[in-house]
Specification:
Layout (H helix, E strand, L loop, with lengths): L4 E10 L2 E11 L3 E5 L6 H8 L7 E6 L8 H4 L2 E4 L11 H11 L4 H14 L15 H13 L5 E5 L7 H16 L3 E5 L3 H7 L2 E6 L2 E7 H5 L7 E7 L2 H8 L5 E6 L5 E6 L2 H15 L3 E5 L5 H9 L1
Helix pairs in contact: 3-4, 3-5, 4-5, 9-10
C-alpha cells in the first residue's frame, strides 16, 4: 500500500484548547519520524491515527479505513504510547499474553507470541519476573513487546527511546530497521532528533498543531535557503585557508577558533562552496583535515523552523 496514513484538514480541539489544526499530510511505507516540540500536537495526531479519539473536523484514513471505533483496523495497528501503564503484579510475559488474549488469540498462541515478542526486545531473561521490579527502560521495552506481538501492518511509537541505556537504544533502533525490512510501516515520535535521523530521512514536522514541513531532511533544509549555511573546517594552516575563502562572493562571516585549527564560515551558497573548496585547499596546501556543515542535520532544521 503506497499510502499508510492520509489526513485532510484534520483538526481536534479540547474545549478552547486546539490540539491539532487543519493538518493535511500523507504518510507512506517505511519509517517516518514525527517531530515537534512539546505541545506541538504529536500525541493528538497519534491518538487520532489509532482511533482513540475522533476528529473535531476534517478526516483521517489509516490503511484505507476510518480509525475511530474500528475494531477490524485495531488488529492491523501496533501502538506503544508514552504513558507507563503496566500491571505490576504480572510478569512481562503474562502482560503481553493478556493483551493478545483480549485480541482473540488462544491461550497457547498468545503465550508463544508473548515469548517471541519479549525475545525481540531482549527481555527473554526477565520475562518471567514481575513487571513491578522492572527498570524504566525494561518497562518501556515491555510496552513495545506488547505492541508488536500480533500481526500488525503499522506501528506507532511515542518517544520509544525514553529511559533506555545506550545498548538498549541501539537494540531498539535495530528492531525498527528489522520491522521496516519485514514490510512494516513505522511512525516514530521522538525528541532524540539525531537518532530519528539515523533511522530515516523522512520526517513530518508539526508545530502548534499544524504541519510545518515534510520530506527528507535535505528537502526540508531547502526551505531555509534564505538563511546562510554554516560550514566548519579544521586545517593545518587555518588562517591562510580562511583568508583565501574570502575570494568567494558567497562567503560572509569567517571566524577562527581559539585552538588555532578550526574555522567557522557562513556561506549563501553551500553547494558552490563545497565544489570550490577542494581546489582551493589543494592549491594552498593548507592541510585540510575535516569539513562539516553542522546545520544540515535534523536538529538544526528543527531549531530553524520552530525558532
Amino acid at each position: 500500500m503506497s499510502v499508510i496514513i492520509e489526513a485532510k484538514e484534520l483538526a481536534r480541539w479540547y474545549g478552547e484548547v486546539v490540539g491539532l489544526n487543519d493538518l493535511t499530510v500523507t504518510i507512506g511505507p517505511g519509517i517516518t519520524g514525527l517531530v515537534g516540540p512539546n505541545g506541538a500536537g504529536k500525541s493528538t495526531f497519534m491518538k487520532l491515527i489509532v482511533g482513540e479519539i475522533r476528529p473535531s473536523r476534517g478526516s483521517i484514513q489509516v490503511l484505507g479505513h476510518v480509525p475511530f471505533a474500528n475494531r477490524a483496523l485495531y488488529a492491523q495497528i501496533g501502538f506503544c504510547p508514552q504513558q507507563d501503564a503496566l500491571y505490576d503484579h504480572m510478569t512481562g510475559r503474562q502482560f503481553v499474553a493478556s493483551f493478545l488474549r483480549l485480541a482473540g488469540f488462544g491461550r497457547q498462541e498468545a503465550d508463544a507470541r508473548a515469548v517471541s515478542a519479549m525475545e525481540r526486545v531482549h527481555l527473554a531473561d526477565a520475562m518471567n519476573r514481575k513487571v513491578g521490579g522492572y527498570s524504566k527502560g525494561m518497562r518501556q521495552r515491555t510496552r513495545l513487546a506488547q505492541s508488536i506481538a500480533h500481526d500488525f501492518e503499522l506501528l506507532i511509537v511515542d518517544e520509544p527511546l525514553t529511559g533506555l541505556d545506550p545498548v538498549a537504544r541501539h537494540r531498539m533502533l535495530e528492531l525498527f530497521r528489522q520491522l521496516k525490512d519485514e514490510g512494516k510501516a513505522v511512525l516514530l515520535s521522538s525528541h532524540v532528533l539525531h537518532e530519528v535521523e539515523s533511522l530515516t530521512e523522512e520526517i513530518v514536522l508539526i508545530h502548534r498543531g499544524r504541519l510545518l514541513a515534510q520530506g527528507s531532511v535535505r528537502e526540508v533544509r531547502k526551505l531555509l535557503s534564505h538563511h546562510p549555511r554554516r560550514v566548519r573546517m579544521r586545517a593545518r594552516e587555518p588562517r591562510r585557508l580562511a583568508e583565501a575563502c574570502l575570494r568567494f562572493d558567497h562567503v560572509g562571516a569567517i571566524h577562527l577558533d581559539e585552538d588555532g585549527e578550526g574555522i567557522a564560515i557562513e556561506t549563501r551558497d553551500v553547494g558552490t562552496f563545497f565544489d570550490e573548496l577542494p581546489l582551493l585547499a589543494a592549491e594552498l596546501r593548507a592541510g585540510l583535515r575535516s569539513l562539516e556543515s553542522p546545520d544540515a542535520n535534523l536538529e538544526a532544521v528543527f531549531d530553524y523552523l520552530v525558532g
